[in-house]
From TrEMBL:
Native source organism of the sequence: Tepidamorphus gemmatus
MF (Gene Ontology): 3-keto-5-aminohexanoate cleavage activity; metal ion binding
Residue intervals passing through the bilayer: none
Pfam families: BKACE
Name of this chain's protein: Uncharacterized protein (DUF849 family)
Keywords from the UniProt entry: Metal-binding, Transferase, Zinc
Coiled coil (UniProt feature): none
InterPro entries: Aldolase_TIM, BKACE
Cofactor(s) the record lists: Zn(2+)
Amino acid sequence: MRKQDKVIITCAVTGSIHTPTMTPHLPITPEEIAEAAIGAAEAGAAIIHLHARDPNDGRPTPDPDVFMQFLPRIKQSTDAVINITTGGGHGMSIEERLAAPLRAKPEMCSLNMGSMNFGLFPMLDRYKEFRHEWERQHLENSRDFIFRNTFKDIEYILTHLGEAHGTRFEFECYDVGHLYTLAHFLDRKLVTPPLFVQTIFGILGGIGADPENVAHMHRIADKLFGDDWSWSILAAGRNQMPLCTMAAMMGANVRVGLEDSIYLGKGELATSNAAQVAKIRSILETLSLKIATPAEARAMLDLKGGDRVDF
């Protein structure tokens, strides 16, 4: 793993997992997403990870026109690195998932390193009623859903987004096998160092949120990538802050945000993305760790710069 003096905080602002019924603080409209992203950047996030939602009912949408209602505003208001999803939401085709990134040509995109079960259906037991009928169906459909990213899909994204437009990636690794898939693409020179490896814990279908698993994923990535990778971690739900803290002490960057957890503490809904960023920043600074600025994050990850995007 690359040695680094500062910690990059990523904030994933809205995602496609949680639904409007679960929290009134979930950003839905383009205006809300922009405000949430700007607030997170002001609180200390160097990277902002973005999905879009239908402003009428909050369902995930791949529509590039919706993305373009908030991307320029965020760029104009902050120097943060803007990272756009290529994962989209359940049921979206790869063409739909890539529509916004190919139009925006951002500095960074997320890239799931494999196909996997992605179970959200256990959350059905927590809510008796939903504000929108799509929410119940969204969660239930995950019982019989495989998120698809085949080797061919990954090759397509790396070629059409990475090679063609200079976009670099947050390589999302939900299990140990995903690290080996990334190593495969590194061997083929379809990806180039420094790798920004996001290890993800606590999604049903991926590796569990256990401190032993955090150490194991770190160990395997170190074996595969040597000094050619920068580590980041996210953990779902109540595991967000504890595992991010643990990994930061081991040299990792961290990701928080309402995409990954709607809570700030036990039983306490986070009122904003900025609140989660402020909390993890306070923890990191208490541990005598310094926070990377957007410019420092760009240098650490070899990004092309905000002047070379199409928004």
